[in-house]
Design goal:
It is found in: Periplasm. This protein is α+β, with helices and mostly antiparallel strands and about 525 residues long. About 25% of the residues lie in helices and about 25% in strands. It has a domain of about 230 residues: Dipeptide-binding Protein, domain 3 (Roll), CATH 3.10.105.
């Protein structure tokens, strides 16, 4: 079973309840909510993890994060621009509908349709062709050796079910009214969603007809969003829930010293960063009218040099973060050691602002989630204070992730001037970051830049990104990636902050085994009576 599709998977850690003890209910609480059951609404790790109980992709990731067969039994590339996938026979959706090639073709069209937040899962110009009921070809315009690398979170939907329930189109993240697919699920995965009350509770029951042999002893998983950190910790310590995520940094010692719970900690591959609107001629949320300060590289550099990531590490993250010079975790790029982040320099930042024509600074709104990342709101509060030292007044708008994503991704309009975001490349590769987050979003026919909230655009980086995708020689490929990051650094296109640490609170009734793979900690467990 893929670790991303068992219980509470994140990009770098998972807790898996396993046999042979008697069947159990596992109760889990997260700081954020599961807003939609539509698997194409939000490209967010926690959402993918929850929906991975019910839905599956053509491929999966094993406990070592290696690609393994799932709904596709095998695949080959008969030619550089054609991938052929042979589908697993005998698989049924939760409602009994058979899984066939028609569902793959439908899902390929739907994930790239207007309203989807995952269009980069499949190149926009790729043709998806049904060869027979259990064979599908993906025909590309250019070679793509990592085509399927993030398909563990491209979940396959039931075409017949979607058509019957008016759910052919994906549900946009900013939708004001729920669709049938956002409130109901019908996948092929190991768990059936028995009930879903957004903001209240979601109940998962084992799928008795799953095509694989279950590796758990669970009779149900009950997920309850608990936004309050204090309430979440109290629920764990009292035994009301079995697992919480995250454990607030200030409560780690308290949980570890309790008689009935412990904290699992490990590095994560997600990079937390700040972005600035560099596209609009006038910022949406600023007192500067008629122009956009962030179009001036000196202003972007000033913001970069005003942010003290070491202070954030010690004061806000209490040592549980790794300051980053890049928009990707060092574990995912071999040449990351060639990059060094300059130290914070408020005096130099003030001088740069003055040179750019803002000697007294200016006002801008910072959009920030308050229930998505570890200490996200406190990080943003620290940024507000640091920018105040150089004369920039920041109005902090911190919201729950449902409201935050609905705002910043509003109808593809990217309604933000300055924002905090986290990103884990689904492919575990730099191309994903360079294409999806940093790539220009100026071509409405392309999925490039789908999650580029800032509108940052550098055509030289785009050209390098295209070469990176097709380059098979690792040494040459790494040099292309390095060049792209060097250009981004010189341009101060984004402000990377750090890779945070994961902190899971787990009841001692859950038996644990721990191991490390490439500095990524994985956990699996048996729920005891």
């Amino acid at each position: 079973m893929s670790i991303r599709q068992t219980l509470l998977a994140a990009a770098t850690a998972s807790i898996l309840a396993m046999a042979p003890a008697s069947a159990q209910t596992l109760r889990y609480a997260n700081q954020g909510d599961l807003k939609s059951l539509d698997p194409y609404t939000l490209n967010e790790t926690t959402t993918h993890a929850h929906l991975g109980h019910a839905y599956e992709g053509l491929i999966a990731r094993d406990k070592d994060l290696k690609i393994v067969p799932a709904l596709a039994e095998s695949w080959e590339t008969p030619e550089p621009t054609r991938w052929r996938f042979h589908l697993r026979k005998g698989v049924k959706f939760h409602n009994g509908d058979p899984f066939t090639a028609d569902d793959v073709v439908f899902s390929a069209e739907r994930v790239r349709a207007k309203g989807s937040n995952l269009p980069t899962r499949i190149p926009s110009d790729a043709k998806v062709v049904k060869v027979d009921d259990y064979t599908v070809d993906f025909i590309l315009t250019s070679p793509n050796p990592i085509l399927h690398s993030q398909w563990d979170t491209w979940y396959i939907m039931d075409k017949k079910w979607a058509e019957a329930n008016n759910s052919i189109a994906p549900t946009p993240v900013a939708a004001t009214s729920p669709s049938f697919a956002s409130l109901n699920a019908n996948g092929t995965g190991p768990f059936i969603i028995e009930s879903h009350q957004p903001g209240v509770k979601t109940v998962f029951k084992p799928n008795p007809n799953w095509w694989r042999e279950p590796e758990h002893n669970l009779k149900e998983i009950v997920f309850t969003p608990i936004g309050s950190a204090a309430t979440r910790v109290a629920a764990l310590l009292s035994g009301e829930v079995d697992v919480i995520e995250p454990v607030p940094i200030q409560d780690i010692t308290r949980v570890d010293s309790s008689p009935n719970a412990q904290v699992l900690k490990g590095p994560e591959l997600r990079t937390i960063f700040l972005g600035m609107d560099t596209l609009r001629d006038e910022l949406l949320y600023s007192n500067i009218k008629g122009k956009n300060p962030f179009k001036d590289v000196r202003v972007r550099e000033a913001f970069y040099k005003a942010i003290d990531v070491e202070l954030i590490k010690t004061r806000v993250m209490r040592g549980l973060s790794t300051p980053s010079a890049l928009m990707i975790a060092p574990q995912l790029f071999a040449l990351s050691k060639d990059f060094t982040r300059p130290k914070a320099d408020p005096d130099a930042a003030k001088k740069l602002l003055a040179e750019a024509g803002y000697p007294d600074g200016f006002e801008v709104t910072l959009d920030c989630p308050n229930d998505r990342y570890v200490n996200d709101a406190p990080i943003c509060q620290a940024v507000v204070s640091m920018l105040a030292r150089i004369g920039v007044k920041v109005d902090l708008l911190a919201q729950p992730k449902a409201q935050y994503f609905a705002k910043v991704l509003k109808a593809g309009g990217y309604q933000t001037s300055f924002f905090l975001l986290g990103w884990t490349p689904g492919t575990l590769d730099s191309h994903n970051v360079l294409y999806d987050v940093i790539g220009c979003r100026d071509d409405p026919k392309s999925s490039r830049g789908e999650n580029n909230l800032s509108g940052y655009c550098n055509k030289e980086i785009d050209a390098l990104t295209d070469k990176i995708l097709q380059e098979a020689d690792t040494t040459k490929r790494d040099q292309l990636i390095k060049r792209a990051y060097q250009i981004l650094d010189k341009d101060f296109g984004y402000i990377p902050l750090h890779q945070q640490a994961l902190a899971w609170g787990v009841s001692k009734k859950v038996k644990l085994t721990q191991r490390a793979d490439n500095q990524v900690l994985l956990y699996w467990a048996t729920k005891q009576d």
